[in-house]
Amino acid sequence: MKKIRVMVVGYGNVGRGVIKALAANEDMELAGIVSRSPERVRRAVELPVLPVEAVGEWQQAFRPDIAILCGGSKNDLPEQGPTLVNCVSTVDSFDNHSCIPQYFERMDAAGRAAGQVAVISTGWDPGIFSLERVLANAFIPGSRAYGFYGLTGKGGLSMGHSDALRTIPGVRDARQYTHAVESAVDRVRAGENPEFEPGDMHTRECFVVLDAGADPAAVEAAIKSMPGYFAPYRTTVHFVSQDELDTRYRGFPHDGCVVAAGVTGGEHAATVEYRCKWESNPEATANVLVAHARAAVRLKAEGKTGAFTILDIPPAYFSTHSRADLLKKFM
Q: What is the pTM of this model?
């Protein structure tokens, strides 16, 4: 069996998760890592690492079938996605929901021009939850499907929002926890189909380590005014030491659900609910990315080009199982 050669772009939490996930999939192998900081990554791992900008070098050395882009959505992916898809098919987890249509257009145009496939915005949300929202709305006509995150008391750690915090001048390190508003979840489950503003469904809690000399008031103002991430939400900012962040807030737990409620036949109550719970958010995202990498390779083998999302891909393309096994064991 010819294995799918996967190049990992970035060696953060998601990148490390992807490498673990590749080892668990017999039809895939790690071709190599590219990074904006290759020397730092080489000190951490005994794996082939090249600079992300050395295109000809990694194309020849790694011969990747697909690249999984593991950078952040605020700064990394908008730059790396359209650039790298000129050279190789890509999969990414771009998660700024409000900007997905524009990002899709850029990746679609670049992918078509280069004859490559770009699977964008996949993970568990956007990604799995996107599909669940579409299905729930289709199965209960007239209903709205809502996504809620951070259902436990501690909340759920958001990698994208944590990454966005770390781009703010004066922030050395940070983590952001999302909390679902319980009353909002209850209203949806009751079938109200409410019109929510973004801040009605979730609150955000930030734990921030400042650089020496940074102004806490200025940093807090920058956080709370950041469009697309914190501006629409009730956001609480706690300033903590690096030691406290590393010990008290270690780990990457997250969870969430998609809920839709309405009626069938004009009178009978109906509810669709999908729930997931992850002890490691980055490893969860990594496993979803790897399955989409398999699908992207299959799409390209069929002559497809341009951008795709989970909504565009047959579920069988994610699986290692044959059609016969899927029909026999999963139907």
A: 0.90
